[in-house]
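User: I'm writing a tutorial on reading structure tokens. Could you give me a worked example: one chain, its sequence, then its tokens, then a sentence or two explaining what the tokens reveal?
Assistant: Sure. Here is the example chain.
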Amino acid sequence: MTETWLKKKPIRKSGAVPMYVQVAEILDGEVKARNGAHFALPSEGELSREFGVSRVTIRQALKQLEARGVIYSEHGRGYFSTASRMKGVSGFHSFTTEVRKLGAEPGSTVVAYEERRQLSPAFRKHLQSEGESGTDFIFLRRVRSIDGDPVALEDAYLPTALYPSATRDMFESGSLYAEMTATWGIVPTWTDALFEPTAATAEEAGYLKIEPGAPVLSVWRVTVTDTDQAVEYVKSVYKGGGFMLNVNRYRL
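And here are its predicted structure tokens:
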């Protein structure tokens, strides 16, 4: 980043504005000038030399920007810009549609597909639902990505009776909600969700390309139609950093 600075304001080492605040404002301006691009910031040492201030000052500036959501850190890797264009992703509407609206390229890779499976005990516990006890479900596991970067691991249970003739190929690309509507006439309307901060398991970390134990946000939800028919039970595990998730209840 240091090679492509816009015109940089000098740091005033005396005056009313602390040096770390000045550094934070310059870095904030650089992130904004890149129009939502995702990139790694220079190391603390490089920034210290660039600005002519101590590493303690740089660390204070970076922590301030992290608290604002402008950047995020990954243990052992450093600091990265938070892609501002991702701030509108609600996590409830169609992931594919929302990401495209915000100017990025969504990705979805099916990593597991089973045609007959019971709703797992974890889903029953978190959603406080019997989940149509005795009902068969299609189990679908997908890795969701933004511009090639994996951001979520998603497990979905779809009541088999509602999706006759479903095949794995139908879920390999595009929007699941669009497929629901176009193929089976199912219109997702409401969703209720439970949010749970957790640590990434080794399996989750492998899919999301993060360290095991890294903080993640697990979101459990049930999606229903306007007649309250449950059409989907989902657990999404979102990795930290890179985008922001709006937390609201929406009409779909």
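What the tokens reveal: The chain has a mean pLDDT of 81. Residues 27 and 99 are 26 Å apart (CA to CA).
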